[in-house]
Amino acid sequence: MAQNRDAIDDIIDISKGFDALKNPFGSLTDALLGTATGEEPAHWNPADYKERPRVNVLPCLACKSEKSDCHACMDACPVNAIEIEDGTIEILDTCRKCGLCVAACPTEAFVSPRLKPKKLYDAVARAATAHETAYVTCTRALRRIPRENEVVVACVGDVTRETWFSIMTDFPNVSVYLPLDICTNCRNACGEEMLGEAIAEAEEWAGRGMGLEIEARDLKCVKRREYERKEFVDNMVRQTGLAVSKLTPATAAVASVTQRLREHTSRVSALEKTLNTACGTTSAKRRRVLTEGRQLMLSSLQQHPELAENIRVQRPVCDFDKCMLCGDCVAVCPTFACDIVNGKKLSIEPTYCVGCGLCAQVCEDHALTMTEFDGADLVVPDPEAERKARLAAEAKAEYAEAKAEVKEKLTKVLDNVEKLAD
Predict the structure, then answer these.
(1) Residue 75 is inside which H or E element, if any?
(2) Can you give the pLDDT at residue 5?
(3) Residue scoring higher pLDDT (238 or 412)
(4) Residues 81, 73 contacting (CB under 8 angstroms)
């Protein structure tokens, strides 16, 4: 912004100077109290960032079939607070509200509004859009009221690989804050391991690394200058009623955080609508289930299809010579990705399949084998983008044709001029 400075930038810097004069020890006080500038929180309570998960037994693999060997939630729970028996799930009172079961469940049977993939993505997007750097951390690491650019979860293992992938592809200025050895004495024993596995896989998918901060003094809270300009202009509009943004096209062109989140939400909704139209129901008129994590993943792939070759996912492959069309796999599929078409052939819709492997486990004929694929089949065509690309190609062709026609006419004129000169 230095080369495009104007009066608004000067006024913002002057106002910062006045704020410093009014409260010269503000930053020191904030550092000592662990509070962000302008905030006066009553107290720091880690429980405010924790939430007891709720359970939906319908997509739970262990509840769907006793043949399932899935116990990811129980493995992740540090206090053995989850019991699954006779198709029911009980969360005991010993639950620490760490949220690891939510991240571990492949079918999103465990639900926590605070830890929903889209909600986590939006929280990080708000911080990353408005600030030069955004941080994701846990209550144990932060131990204070978070600043505007700090997103706090109960445990760093609560973020899934799909969510990390979407964050990495859309916001390269996001880092994890995790001091050295902070997880050593934490009761959430596998949280650090889950974080490492999720980020490692997301990094492979996105083709870039995730930043890591280990020192509290390295955490910065600096707003983007374009966001400060937007805030400044919005405040002037509210205070004066003047349409200042009309006088400053550069400021008016800056998309706000809300606009960016709205665009992402619209993109996800359009993606789901496209899938519903193309393959959203089975032949038995059952509506397929698209998990929130898969929604984020597909949305990012739609914007960055070149990353599809980096992604590795598992889905079943059917040996049709062995398949007896019994329908057991269709009955247990938690997302209804499996279907028997016209009663003649088994099909698997890759965009809905989460690779849980339950279909292969219940197949008594051993006709299904879980196989690794890249993400090529997960790239969902964007009708609007295709329409714009088609219009752009047509316009380019028309321009090239008109250019050739003008060149031809100009050549004829020059030839005639040369003849007259002779």
Answers:
(1) helix 72-76
(2) 60
(3) 412
(4) no
Nearest to 379 by CA among 305, 323, 320: 305
290-328, pLDDT tens digit by residue?
999 999 999 999 999 999 999 999 999 999 999 999 999
Please tell me the predicted confidence (pLDDT) of residue 245: 46
Q: Which residues contact 356 (CB under 8 A, 6 or more apart)?
A: 61, 70, 106, 107, 334
Tokens representing 333 are 């599929």
DSSP 353: -
Residues 189-215 pLDDT 10s: 899 999 999 999 999 999 999 999 999
Q: How far is CA 149 from CA 36, 137, 289, in A?
A: 10, 11, 33
Cα 139 from Cα 136, distance rounded (Å)? 10
Mean pLDDT of 13-31: 51
Question: Based on C-alpha coordinates, what's the Rg of the chain?
Answer: 27
- Asked if the model's pLDDT at residue 1 lies above 70, the reply is no
Residue 344's SS3 state is coil
Parallel, antiparallel, or unpaired for β 211-213 and 174-177?
Answer: parallel
CA 240, CA 234: separation in Å to the nearest integer? 10
State the Cα–Cα distance between residues 195 and 17, nearest whole angstrom: 41
DSSP E strand stretches across 4-149: 54-55, 82-85, 88-91, 110-111, 134-138
Give the total residue count for the chain: 422
Average pLDDT of the chain, as a whole number: 84
Q: Which residues contact 232 (CB under 8 A, 6 or more apart)?
A: 8, 11, 12
Tell me the HSE value of 279 on the side-chain side, using a 13 A CA sphere: 17
